[in-house]
Amino acid sequence: MATDLRLRRSEEIQGDVVAGFKKDNVTLLFLKFEDAARARDWLRVLAPQIATTRQVADFNAAFSEARKSSGGDDPKTLKATWLGVSLTYEGMRQLSATDPFAQAPPVGSGLEAFKEGAAKRAGALGDTGDNSPENWLFGNGRTQAVHAVLTIASDTEQDLAAAVTAQREAAAEARIVIIFQQNAKTLLGSRRGKEHFGFKDGISEPGVRFFDQPAPDNEEEVAGHPGTRIIPAGEFVVGEQPAPGSFTDYPAWARDGSFQVVRRLSQDVPGWWSQVSVKLKELKQAKAVPDTATTEWLAARLVGRWRSGAPVCKHQDRDVPNDPTASSDNDFDFRDDLEGLATPLFSHLRKSSPRAGLQAPDPSRPPFDAKELDGRRIMRRGAPYGHPFDPASEGPGGPDDPRGLLFVCYQADIARQFEFIQADWIDQPDFPPGRNPVPGKDPVITEADDVDFESRGPDGAIKHTPLTFQQFVQTQGSVYAFAPSLSTLRALADGRLTGQSQGGPNGQVSPQPGKGYPCDDFVAVPDQWRLGGQSQYWAFHGEQRRRIAVEDGASHTDRPVERDAALTGWPALQGIARIDCVLPMPDLQNPAGKSWYWVFHSTGGRRQYRAVSITCGGGSHTTALERPDRDLSAWSSLSGVDRMDCFLPVPDQQRVGGKSWYWAFHSTGGRQQYRLISVADGAAHTDVRERGDRELTQWGSLGGITKVDCFLPVPDQQRAGGTSEYWVFHGERYRRISVADGSGHPDRKLADDRPCDAWNSLA
Residue 469 in contact with residue 518, Cβ under 8 Å? Predict the structure, then answer.
């Protein structure tokens, strides 16, 4: 039976989550949105550039094959630059203009951790004192907020630099502030694949169900990698089946996404190694280690592996740097070392992933099997930053030169996975539990003043030697974010989420239909206006359009007529990612069954418009592109406008004296304003700016609104008794207003805001 590796083909999951970018050069940009509308435009352009799992998996497979063919050398001609993006809770709220959580997240859940953010939860993770958020370079929760984290990874420094420059320019154009830039790079030469203390990193990463090929004789291990467990995909990708007992109640927008933790961990390399030397002397004085033990010997026991990556439990006397199988060995556990005499219980390896061999609190119960800990695994994607330590250097590489680890991990539940490992295992002296004395904290990355070094005395009894370790790894920044699916990214670029319903059992989150709001614009179906007591419209939202009907009468009952279809299903809209607004040509509405329109859109970062037509006949509607895209600057009346948001016809000034007047609402300089323009009848449709920009506050009926998305005329209330009524859509809410004929065109609010889901046709 063929193995199901469907995740390898996913074009929804971002590429760094399960496939892994695996690049030598990485930059993370920590971003703050200054203007939500521009940030959505930025995301709309960025989304097609985000690397998918399929792209990254295919490249990594080809790279691996090429390396085998070349005898282990990296192929020179095979290279790529990948982009990934994650969003904080506040970043998602800014883009969607709503709270991502319909109800407060469950107490103690990873969703609650994501919403609260890293700074608020720092104390519980041991980030106090010098490690506290007040000393962080990013993510401190007080100065500059982080709304997004952009990951840029490349095979070459030159390609990375070019990509970073391009993304910095795109951010500047969208008024996005770069709070912090963190560069990281694989160390060179003999240090390749190692972190700054000198130990090989990333060996113990798990396999993923439906992504990694299982071994023929053991479906729970990765083929060709004995001991590397295949973990349920739902532990890393929301919506896939997780390990038994894991959290499954996710919002629908989370499907195919993963929660990300980013931390900058500085490393005092000379301080750490000096401490190891001092502790070795203490252990020798206590006769707790062999006389032949070296600092390398003790350091390996603190880590759990030798510098090469070879596990201490298999190579207890010395490192085996020339054995390639030992340097990537995961085929071991600690069942035969429950006391921690070979690999100490406090070692970083056992603290962060106890494997099989974790003794249950009840001594009568056998040790936990590795499978029972699947729900605690994380997918690490870290890289070192800074120059390697060089005691002779006065510049880069010197003792005071910044260096450390850019820690990145993905998981489905930040609280149950990353935070649990950090707080309940690494930073917990009484883990493994039930020991006397307690094993102590992880001395590699924490301040551990209670470490119990166990050894056998001359009489064969276990001897306990207490040790105290200072901390030489400091937290200098931390962010909790979410790496959405490509579909959710596109929805957020349209200012909406994919839905609020919750998932079912086994983590199978059912994708819900997206809300039809915020609506970008409504266009009346030309031959269905006030026909038989109802009017029909096309409602444009994001990449979609739907057809709805609104009845005349006091209740104005609405209903859907046609379900969502892609914009590009209309030949007239080919190449358009999203419509900003539509303006009917005033003198070309339905003559001989054909109506003309100007369609304003933002595509590829450019503000453009085109002329299209809709022809009615026989119950069908045919669209055509009449004039191709031109820049917005071709409209003299729109000079200085960044983006058109919507037009509102001046009700008593339509085709009066051969021209029609409009209030033009536009976003410029980070805020929405409006101006008065006119468009003349005739082939040229000459446009004129009749009055300059004014603030929205000039409209009493729009009080409290910062951005209008579109107006929808109340069909049977146009110029009725000298006033015209409109529904005003803004974000996920709408209100009803009126505009009077005559000088000054007085306006007033007729009904307060209501949620858009009060419209059946827009749900």
Answer: no
Give the count of beta carbons closer than 10 Å to the beta carbon of residue 75: 15
CA pair distance 553, 754, nearest whole angstrom: 19
Contact indicator for 43, 518 with CB cutoff of 8 Å: no
- pLDDT score, position 604: 64
- CA torsion through residues 436, 441, 442, 444, sign: negative
Contact of 262 with 481, CB cutoff 8 Å: yes
How large is the angle between the packed helices 36-46 and 157-173, nearest 10 degrees? 150
Q: What global pTM score does this model have? A: 0.72
Distance (Å, rounded) from C-alpha 606 to C-alpha 16?
A: 29
The full DSSP string for 51-75 is PBHHHHHHHHHHHHHHHHHTTSPPP
As to burial, measured by CB atoms within 10 angstroms (0-12 exposed, 13-18 middle, 19+ buried), residue 677 is buried
- What are the start-end ranges of the E strands in 412-456? 448-456
Q: What is the pLDDT of residue 199?
A: 96
Q: Indicate the SS3 state at residue 283.
A: helix
State the helix-helix crossing angle for 295-303 and 269-285, rounded to 10 degrees.
110
Cα torsion at 709, 714, 719, 720 (round to 10°)? -150
**DSSP of 389-402:** P-TT-SSTTSTTS-
Query: Phi/psi zone of residue 451: left (φ > 0), alpha (ψ -120 to 50 degrees), beta?
Result: beta
420 membership: H or E segment, kind and range: helix 420-420
Q: How many residues does the chain have?
A: 763
Spatial separation of the C-alpha atoms in residues 218 and 311, rounded to whole Å: 22
Q: Tell me how far apart the 2 most distant CA atoms of the chain are, in Å.
A: 111
What pLDDT score was predicted for residue 68? Answer: 83
Q: In the structure encoding, which two tokens stand for residue 587, read together? A: 């003198």
Distance CA 207, CA 209 (A): 7
Percent of the chain that is helix, strand, coil (3-state, to 5): 25, 35, 45
Give the whole-angstrom CA distance, residue 716 versus residue 725: 9
CA 213 – CA 207 distance, rounded (Å)? 9
Angle subtended at Cα 199 by Cα 419 and Cα 149, rounded to the nearest 5 degrees: 45
From CA 702, how far away is CA 696, in angstroms rounded? 7
At 530, is the secondary structure helix, strand, or coil?
Answer: coil
Cβ neighbours of 640 (radius 10 Å): 13
In the predicted model, residues of the chain with pLDDT beneath 50 are 1-2, 499-516
Contact in structure between 575 and 558 (CB atoms under 8 Å): no
CA distance 748 to 725: 10
Q: Provide DSSP, 118-179.
A: TGGGTGGGT--GGGSGGG-SS--SSSS---EEEEEEESSHHHHHHHHHHHHHHHHHTTEEEE
Among 118, 186, 110, CA closest to 155: 186
DSSP 21-37: ---SEEEEEEEEES-HH
